Amino acid sequence: MPEPIEFYFDFSSPYGYLAAEEINTIAERGGRDVVWRPMLLGAVFKETGGQPLLGIPMKGDYARHDLERSARLIGVPFTLPASFPFMSVAAARAYYWMYDQDPEKAVALAKALYREAFGQGRDIDSPAAVVSVCAAEGLDPEAVSAALSDPAVKQRLREEVEAAVAKGVFGSPLILVDGEAFWGHDRLSQVALWLQRGGW
Amino acid sequence: MPEPIEFYFDFSSPYGYLAAEEINTIAERGGRDVVWRPMLLGAVFKETGGQPLLGIPMKGDYARHDLERSARLIGVPFTLPASFPFMSVAAARAYYWMYDQDPEKAVALAKALYREAFGQGRDIDSPAAVVSVCAAEGLDPEAVSAALSDPAVKQRLREEVEAAVAKGVFGSPLILVDGEAFWGHDRLSQVALWLQRGGW
User: Fold this and answer.
1) Which of A5, A166, B60, B124 falls 20 to 30 Å from B102 in CA-CA distance?
2) What residue ranges do the domains of chain A occupy?
3) Domain A5-197 adopts which CATH fold?
């Protein structure tokens, strides 16, 4: 069995949401598993001098339009949350806390968090909002709540983000296939081809 | 006959080069003509605070790799010129000068300039280099040379760039289809679909 592909994303990245809706199907067709690895773009932007896409003049307006158009094309709902960009630390902590117990449930939780934010356009930045999504996924609200402020969970996320930056992850979504990086929702078709052909 | 699509690009944009190799085929399949409109990204970056892609930490290294990989995928040669990014004013002036005499020849010249830069990896920033490519395309070197410093030609380009910015062109390549903007070589598949379906 070949290595799983790695799916890096920030929960506050709308293109990450679109990719999250497609990545597992693409990987499955290519005979691969996927490891989902949420990270924090803020840490990356310190390295690259980047800034949130939608705040950039001209480019931001385009991206809003492009996101809606791309979502329609792949048939998923899309709404930008009222407060955007937003802090995604709580969502990412909840993910890794769940991942260490049950990776499959963690992916289901990640999809639920993304759909809450960009499918429904609801805020997922506060711990309370994240706990509420977790509860709807059948998790114990008190356990999640405790995890979000657990120093060990905080440290776990910090290490993941550092590891991502060290691996050259500079944007969201970014997919690593056997060390080969593909950046952006609009590169998923190349990921699919790469898996199918074993490179080119 | 529906309106032609508009292909905006900067001669110093490597993703513009990749798009230039494909745009006419895509348009033809969709029953459209293409108007090629070189612009100057420097003018746009003043509005957006953008910077040349390849100079950005992490992202720049990725882009170099992605360009080579994407060029291999579509089967065109790719070499980054030694001096990059480079000034593309002379190339753009030569284009519009030719366009006002013969639009088809202007497109052939644009392809030749792009191939010189990113196919062969040779400099096209100086007027002398542009004149040399024009001469290889059968144009009169003295006439081209005079055009490159002709105030009317300079003004022609300035107006084109202003018009592009006014239309919201913020990157290269950017394709306008009936007022619908698609940015990036990696959006050409959406351009093809849009033409085929008449939107979605």
Assistant:
1) B124
2) 5-197
3) Glutaredoxin (3.40.30)
Q: How far apart are CA A190 and CA A171, in angstroms?
A: 17
Q: Which of A114, A95, A113 is nearest to A105 (CA)?
A: A95
ipTM value of the model? 0.92
Confidence band of A169 (pLDDT split at 50, 70, 90): very high
Burial class (CB within 10 angstroms; exposed 0-12, middle 13-18, buried 19+) of A11 = buried
Mutate one of A58, A74, A169, A172 to test the B interface: name it (highest B CB count within 10 A): A58
* CA distances from residue A131 to A84, A124, A147 in whole angstroms, order as listed: 19, 9, 10
Cα–Cα distance for residue pair B90/A80, rounded to 1 Å: 42
Judged by a CB distance cut-off of 8 A, whether residue B69 touches chain A is yes
- Say if residues A164 and A39 touch (Cβ distance below 8 Å): yes
Place of tokens 């950046």: A183
DSSP state of A123: -
Q: How far is CA A194 from CA A168, A172, B200, in A?
A: 20, 19, 28
The model carries a pTM of: 0.94
Describe the strand order of the beta sheet including B174-177 as a list of residue ranges.
B34-38, B5-9, B174-177, B180-183
Helices (H), B56-187: 59-74, 89-99, 103-114, 127-136, 141-148, 151-166
Q: How confident is the model at residue A50 (pLDDT cuts 50, 70, 90)?
A: confident
